[in-house]
């Protein structure tokens, strides 16, 4: 069975300006290179996103929803969590992830909750709802060192680990359908973007 957690993408152009994001956010007053950081931004943000990206999404009858920027400090991690969509039950919806900084020794991992664990909804530091898990509540299933744009399933427990000496940056974008404004389920996304999946 093929993995249910991610697919690498071969996009026709660069979606984001990594240098601008790194410069702008690392120069913010509250930025500490030794601490993790997280910022919620509007997906319609031409100062960060290539304007071609919006046209590309339109060809799939989609648009850019909210986006988030994560900074994972060297030798640091983000705990296992599910990005809660606001719908019940939780479903396997996707994000586009763009990761840069270290060339190796950084990972995105997925797992499955053990039987009987709590699925209580909380909020992360920038106000996004999520379900947070302790390490002993998860059976780890998949791990990948992200080296190119990637379609990720955030409806399953996932985390980021940076074992490198360099700060790890990740921009996540939620694609939504134009038909009903809903987030896109993982298998639906694989079919929708199949010609760009490697």
Task: Describe the protein.
The protein has helices at residues 18-26, 51-58, 186-192, and strands spanning 6-8, 37-41, 62-72, 76-83, 94-100, 106-113, 121-123, 129-132, 138-144, 150-153, 158-162, 168-177. It has a single domain, classed as Jelly Rolls, CATH 2.60.120. It contains three helices and twelve strands. The protein has a six-stranded antiparallel sheet with strand order 1-10-5-12-3-2. Strands 7-8-4-11-6-9 form a six-stranded antiparallel sheet, with no helix packed on it. The two termini are 17 Å apart. The protein is 12% helix and 38% strand. It has 198 residues and is mainly beta. Strand 7 and strand 8 (129-132) form a beta hairpin. The model has no long low-confidence stretch (mean pLDDT 91). It is globular and about 45 Å long.
Put the structure in a nutshell.
With 198 residues, the chain is mainly beta.
Protein traits:
single chain, 198 residues, mainly beta, Jelly Rolls, six-stranded antiparallel beta sheet, 3 helices, globular
């Amino acid at each position: 069975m093929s993995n249910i957690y991610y697919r690498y993408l071969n996009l026709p152009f660069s979606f984001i300006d990594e240098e601008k994001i790194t410069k702008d956010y690392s120069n913010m007053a509250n930025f500490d290179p030794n601490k993790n950081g997280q910022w919620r931004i509007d997906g319609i943000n031409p100062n960060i996103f290539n304007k071609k990206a919006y046209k590309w999404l339109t060809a799939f009858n989609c648009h850019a929803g909210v986006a988030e920027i994560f900074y994972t400090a060297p030798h640091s991690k983000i705990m296992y969590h599910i990005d809660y969509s606001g719908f019940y039950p939780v479903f396997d919806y996707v994000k586009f992830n763009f990761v840069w900084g270290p060339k190796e020794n950084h990972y995105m991992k997925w797992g499955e909750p053990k039987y009987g664990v709590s699925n209580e909804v909380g909020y992360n530091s920038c106000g996004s709802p999520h379900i947070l898990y302790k390490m002993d509540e998860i059976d780890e299933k998949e791990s990948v060192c992200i080296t190119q744009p990637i379609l990720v399933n955030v409806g399953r427990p996932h985390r980021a680990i940076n074992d490198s000496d360099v700060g790890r940056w990740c921009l996540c974008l939620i694609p939504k359908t134009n038909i009903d404004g809903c987030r896109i389920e993982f298998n639906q996304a694989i079919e929708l973007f199949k010609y760009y999946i490697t």
